[in-house]
Design a protein that fits this description.
heterodimer; A: alpha/beta; Rossmann fold; 2 domains; five-stranded mixed β-sheet; 13 helices; globular; B: 252 residues; alpha/beta; seven-stranded mixed β-sheet; 10 helices; 7 strands; 38% helix
Chain lengths: 357, 252
């Protein structure tokens, strides 16, 4: 299992899902993630696993919701505008405490946008579009290797916390091939025998529902969920630091943009300027504390995103009052290249303080 | 002394129906529970409740149950059935939905489950309006019927036409059984139970999607007494929604 193979992100995710025991997939085609469903369609049928070409994304996520009550490892995948259709079910699944893995390989928006690379769904993933006080765990890979590693992790986290988890993948990563190794799933299986619906045999019947006509009970339930989210925030925050020790400047970026940011860091190193890169691997929970700590030493941050500043607000919230954040971003369509970022940073250094290129 | 009647084992023993007086939901749930008992399905069943009055199912029915988002019950049931099948188990899975849930907001999920021949059963309570929200025009509201959103009666210019759900489901190749029943007298109640049982048996046999539409009263929103509500079904509604079996793959 440990030899290097050249794989596209989408296929790597599909392979990793099968590797860690995903037995149910429900999906509807949308570029740029369709290869996930295509790959799984034949593999899952061979293994007699659950695979449905759903009639819509709404149906797909609700099939996932139903399947998750069995305790099975369940996945659906989609992209941006179609993930919008799934928000209702994510709110339900959060209240129902059902482990669902949703892979969103992002395309550009708003609306139908196009299949250009974009990071426009940061808000959708971390804030969510459903109703009520709920949270979805969101992980962001920045390489095809991480697509595999994080696929293992999202299944684990979904089961561990009985909560929907989003793997938020840049369209670029879904479509890009890189040499990777596919190791075995390192995470343990979680015992779910206390809550799954498999027929009330030798036990009382169970029901899973979000409707609660008793105000006191509804409040208790929502507070119970909130307590779980605090637990997730305490345990699961994950990030990567690149040259952040003693950095005079730090670029914050997630997903594929963080790779380009590393190139920027290397460039400034040759000029004798200490530029670090801080990359949240978990977008929710966001690494506020670590960024705050870094901002005690580093006073200037550049937030670089392929959108118009969605993670920017979290970076602003994290850093101390004595630091400042400049935003450099591009919404969709054209790629934000290393040279452009450097040009934008140099402009800011020249005192022009442009906040967007 | 021989006991000839008792509350079905699949009804929660200390529960009391909380539906409006004269509503047929209670009777429909009782029939479903009796069939579950007779087919010995209680320990192997996962029921899917939906939005609207039918969501209360899990308050009364003593089987594993999940509440579905509005209209998605057949998709949720599909996921449940397939997930267990992938693990080597044949669970009994059925949905309990209203007409708005099954045939309006959930029409795509309902119809496609039937087209796929999904091996589940759907029970649809058709009371010709959105009951829980106070009686608005729904997909099954009859022409001329007064609701809070069709105050001078349903007309084709503003509202279009109602859907004959059981007939539509019968057209799907994956459907094994589709029937419409009513509960306005003893004969019909006995027949309703018979058809529910057949629908459940077809799932047990793995024959595909089975469906029973139950014409039901909504006295509160119809503004009729329970007795007059049943008369309305007998004298008016069965002309719009004829009773019968529209598909039965073992007997057609």
């Amino acid at each position: 299992m440990s030899e290097k193979v050249l794989l596209k992100g989408n296929i790597a995710i599909a392979k990793a899902a099968l590797n860690c025991g995903c037995s149910c997939y429900f999906g509807y085609p949308i570029t740029p993630q369709t290869e996930i469903g295509e790959y799984l369609s034949s593999k899952m049928q061979e293994k007699k696993l659950a695979y449905v070409c759903a009639e819509s994304e709404v149906a797909a996520i609700n099939m996932a919701l139903g399947a998750a009550t069995s305790g099975a490892k369940v996945m659906t995948s989609s992209s941006s505008c179609a993930v919008s259709l799934m928000q209702e079910a994510l709110s339900y699944a959060s209240s129902d405490e059902l482990p669902i893995v949703l892979v969103n390989v992002m395309r550009a928006g708003p609306g139908q946008g196009y299949i250009f690379p974009s990071q426009g769904d940061y808000n959708q993933a971390t804030i969510g579009g459903g109703n009520g006080d709920y949270k979805i765990i969101a992980l962001s890979p920045s390489s095809v290797q991480e697509c595999v590693d994080m696929t293992y992790k999202v299944f684990y986290l979904a089961q561990k916390y009985r909560n929907p988890v989003i793997l938020l993948v840049d369209g670029l990563l879904g479509q890009m091939a890189e040499p990777i190794t596919i190791e075995d799933n390192p995470y343990p299986n979680i015992d779910n025998s206390s809550w799954i619906l498999n027929g009330a045999k030798n036990r009382a019947s169970r029901n899973i529902h979000s409707l609660e006509p008793n105000p006191k009970k509804l409040e208790e339930h929502t507070l119970k969920l909130h307590k779980k989210y605090l637990e997730i925030e305490k345990n699961e925050v994950d990030w990567e630091e690149y040259n952040c020790e003693n950095a005079d400047y730090i670029i914050t970026a997630f997903g594929s943009m963080a790779r380009i940011a590393k190139g920027v860091s290397d460039y400034y190193k040759t000029k004798g300027v200490n530029f670090g890169v801080f990359r949240p691997k978990t977008l929710y929970p966001f690494p506020y504390e670590r960024l705050r700590e870094l901002s005690k030493k580093t006073k200037v941050f550049f937030d670089v995103e392929m959108n118009l500043g969605q993670m920017h607000k979290d970076v602003c919230q994290a850093i101390s009052q004595n630091s400042q954040v400049f935003f450099i971003g591009r919404p969709a369509g054209e790629w934000l290249k290393q040279d452009e970022i450097i040009k934008a940073i140099d402009k800011i250094f020249e005192g022009q303080y442009a906040t967007s290129i | 002394m021989q006991q000839v009647y008792s509350i079905p084992k699949s009804i929660k023993q200390n529960s009391t129906f909380t539906f409006c007086p004269g509503c047929d939901h209670g009777l429909a749930i009782k029939l479903v529970a009796q069939v579950i008992d007779e087919l010995e399905l209680k320990e192997n069943t996962i029921a899917v409740a939906s939005s609207g009055c039918s969501v209360l199912l899990y308050d009364f029915l003593d089987v594993d149950c999940i509440e579905s988002p509005h209209g998605r019950a057949c998709a949720v049931a599909t996921g449940i059935k397939r997930a267990h099948k992938a693990q080597g188990y044949n669970k009994f899975v059925f949905t309990y939905q209203g007409d708005g849930d099954f045939a309006s907001i959930g029409l795509a999920e309902s119809l496609h489950s039937a087209l796929r021949g999904e091996n589940i059963t759907a029970i649809c309570i058709n009371n010709t309006n959105y009951g829980m929200t106070g009686g608005q025009l729904g997909p099954t509201t009859a022409m001329g019927q007064i609701t809070t959103t069709s105050q001078s009666g349903r007309n084709k210019e503003y509202h279009g036409f109602p859907i004959k759900t059981a007939e539509h489901i019968a057209l799907c190749e994956g459907t094994s059984f589709s029937a419409r029943v009513a509960l306005y007298d003893i004969k019909n109640i006995i027949n309703a139970k018979k058809q529910i049982k057949k629908a459940f048996e077809y799932q047990k046999k793995g024959l595909g999607f089975s469906f029973v539409e139950i014409l039901s009263t909504c006295p509160t929103n119809w503004k009729l007494t329970p007795q007059d509500s049943h008369k309305k079904i007998e004298n008016e509604l069965i002309k719009v929604y004829p009773l019968g079996i529209f598909k039965d793959i073992e007997n057609d």
